[in-house]
Fold this protein.
Amino acid sequence: MTEIEEVEFKLDLKQALNELSERERSLIVMRYGLNDGVPKTLDEIGRVHGITTARVRKYLAKIHAKLTHPANPMHEYLTQKEHISEVAIKDWIDEAKEWEVEEAEAKAIRARERQERELMYAKRDLLAMQDKVRRIEANLNGN
């Protein structure tokens, strides 16, 4: 990308971001590290906004649809193949893998939490049954 193309791109990006809602703008800025150069994971974004990673993903898909609309200044950059470098494609593939890993990790965490709850309830039920057995034994022994 030439220097002029880069300046045009930045102007188009700024205009496109200004057309988004505050929340949408925040999601895009965080996801691609537009403010600090450090892209955030879906989990990190979700924690900041108080939403799930699945919800973040849905918002990002909605934002992408807005940005690729023909009336949007970013449409040309996001839809024409000559603007898509191999690095961008690799980044998108890596991002898709990251989504899969994050989703698998979240699923594993939820499964673990569910098992811990089940164990806690089973222990509680066991203690209640043991207490009931002691009371019945005490009644049978005349205590």
